[in-house]
Fold these 2 entries.
Entry 1:
Amino acid sequence: MPDPVSCASCGKPATTRCSGCLNAPEHQPDDAPVTAYCDSKCQHQQWPAHKAQCRILMKRKTLLRIAELLKTALFAYRECVYDMPLTGVKYEEGILRLLMDPRKIPYRPWQIPFPSDLSISPQHKEAVLATNQCTTAQCLLGPLARYLLGGIKSIFKVVEVHAEPVVPWKVVWLNGSKDESRTVACTAVTHTILLVWASGEGWVVDITGCQFGFRDILVPLDSYFKKRVKSLVRGPFAYTEHETSDLDVFDSKLALNDTDTKRLKAAHERAGRLHFAKFVQERFDRYESPRPSEELLSGTPEEFQVKLAQFESGLKVHMASFVDFAFGKERLN
Ligand SMILES: [Zn+2]
Ligand SMILES: [Zn+2]
């Protein structure tokens, strides 16, 4: 987009930009122009005319920050409680291969910190952390997402779709002792996403799409469905999931002949999710207004990055106490 050089009010060379709408994501091509002024007097004069558009663009920026925060929360959680015996990642013939060593299956505890000694690109690490997590993410992040979205006027729903991966992944068990390798069909995988409507604009929030090579976490609804979606599977539904709702369904379906291992694994995962829930509850639930989410989501891009990093490190410290508990090192506080 060309840098506007003229003041939106008087047309003279501009020196300042409206920080409210600066760097807002586009919903339609070129619908997030930079608004600039020569001085504060012109900015003040132009505000009544600019206000409506600025508010819409600001809302988009808030949505993007909500998506970033949700992604940060999921990935921080997954880095602390990972459940696969991953020993490496290989990108070959357009497929991401997740190499698993069956001898390293973390039987007890089942969830362990993500291996820190892997040489893996940040992009592949995100893909691996998000693998098979789209349902989990909707559940784990439900209350947090509703809290954050509750702070802006919006409608939000979840939907299950058949999506087309850009980069499909495959789990490869080493040694060949377990032949459970599984290729995600390149044509259609089942994927759960969040739909949000704000200011009359539809958006898709997709924080686990990175497992299929979908890089953007906030995408205009129309272009997401045109580019990514083959067909609708279920929904849209009201977004009522809470941290363990998928595990609750699993529990109700447990048959008598299901192994103790399976039950204990689910119980362990539940404990981890509830520990995450405690973090969210302590941060947000004691407030009646959406004020803390506004605080978290406001500020300059630099200020927001600092808040995001603080949120991430706080969550990791919190989850580390669960990991210590799972290893029998300490009691949960
Ligand atoms: Zn001016
Ligand atoms: Zn503006």
Entry 2:
Amino acid sequence: TATFGPNVRFQEPMSRHTSLRVGGPADVYVAPKEKSDLVVLVRWLQENSLPYFIVGNGTNLLVLDKGIRGIVISMKRCLTDIQHKALDKENVVVTSGTAARLNTLCKYASGNRFKGMNFALGIPGTVGGAIFMNAGTDHGSMADVITAVVVLSPDGEPVRIKKHALQFRYRRLDLKEHPGVGGMQNPIILEGEFRLSVSDKHEIEKEASAIIQKRSTMQPLHQKSAGCFFKNPATGKSAGELIDLAGLKGKRIGDAQVSTTHANFIINKDRATAADILELKDLIQEAVLTSFNVTLEPEVKIVGT
Ligand SMILES: Cc1cc2nc3c(=O)[nH]c(=O)nc-3n(C[C@H](O)[C@H](O)[C@H](O)COP(=O)(O)OP(=O)(O)OC[C@H]3O[C@@H](n4cnc5c(N)ncnc54)[C@H](O)[C@@H]3O)c2cc1C
């Protein structure tokens, strides 16, 4: 408490830190502001073998009703800098701290005439969360633009890992196996490096407004959700189409509801519990399996007890 002052809280409701506005208390919630504080914290956690979990902007999380045992480290405030350097006349490398919002990075890129980040416009996470999730859309994903990530080693040193050594998959990045993170239970991303190309500002802005417009008509952006709840199956119809065809749009359990705008969004109408959302998730999975013989896998991370 002496080091973190008001940035450490006990029994902190995770519903305050997730876009679904659901989740019981974290035993301890720490939001380091400085990298040096984060390093002290991580060394201490490693030395004492204490359980911890990393949270970015909480936009891809379903935290269960009894909350999270151990320490939650919020990466929402620590490391927000964005910079760039030219590689040659046509290409640049943009470096972003983990806590920068993805939208801020997209706007930084378009404002400097750098093409390549528009796919991520409107994704409400942090850069670190987006890298960890390999966030993306039909227009691309983080894996397409990233050239390296910097993670924290167990003894608190930054380790730079180049793209060729990163295992990006659909909506996830496997970092645990990399020797640089030394088997840490939850590797911590500090920074991402992105290769973008110099382009025409007008063209980038035109593409950006089409992407934003499409998102605003297709997604329930003003309701409490964690984005698409299920991953799309590798082939065939999307998860949203399957849920829609199973007749589940608008299906409600307690205050958890399948969005009527986009069937792959589960929304919290007001006071949904994680239990309501889990029950609805199970019902959707069962219905889609019965009707189409497809097993839907959650994209949202379900954490806690
Ligand atoms: C309205 C809405 C629309 C969305 N649209 C999209 C979309 O189009 N495409 C898409 O892919 N996603 C979408 N999402 C989901 C979500 O925004 C993304 O997955 C986002 O990248 C998550 O970032 P976050 O900072 O909120 O991460 P969190 O939800 O806080 O965490 C997600 C995971 O990342 C880990 N993590 C977070 N930060 C770090 C870090 N610094 N180091 C290591 N691990 C970390 C966490 O431990 C957790 O496992 C949407 C969500 C909403 C609410």
